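1st attempt posting a full record on here, be nice pls
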Amino acid sequence: MKKFLLSVLMALGLAAPVVASEGGIPLDRFPYEKMSDVAALQNGARLFVNYCLNCHSAAFMRYNRLRDLDLTEEQIKKNLLFTTERVGEVMKVSLDPKQAKEWFGAVPPDLSVVARSRSGAGGTGPDYLYTYLRTYYRDETKPTGWNNLAFPNVGMPHALWELQGQRAAKFEEVKDPHDPSKVLHRFAGYEQLTPGTLTPRQYDEAIADLVAYLAWMSEPVQGSRVRLGVWVLIFLALFTVIAWRLNAAYWKDVK
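the predicted structure (as tokens):
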């Protein structure tokens, strides 16, 4: 019962999950209020098209669906339509899969439902993506020159490094509490190597907008579904009261 209540609270964004990523670090809580902020979702769509859609496709998402974010077709064509000429087309890329596998070691995955695919018993998809996109650091031992705390040995380079700047991760050696003969490397913070075009706070806000859009894209009707669900619950509550009183009235004279 406790696990069920916790999962409900996490889904509503009312509880911050204390979970671990693939790298073993706790996931940061995604600011779920962004999901109802149309301006944030519009900015997230802009960031997605400019920084993600170069390599990653969104084959289950059509450009004209962005009208649900209060964008006109003219705004979509002028600001977000770079890979095709028709607003009704899906968000696809021209990157050749064979070249992508040669460059990155694997074909960049489709991001249509990435926010849902990363959800699980350990935490929510937006929490993971929010942490992942904010924990890149320079690592010259890797082919791309980048590594990630949430996803160690990640094959994807830091596409947003110009916004965040370049950082190096600092680690300290500590003894393994379970085996004193072993030494563990514990993360001890970042060292800013070069500044980005955004301040750290602005970068976090931008990532929150991007993740909000990815979460929205994975289920564009989720806002309508939630609103409809509230009315359904209200109806069921009222119907339960009416049914209870009718039942009492029907059986009151039955001996």
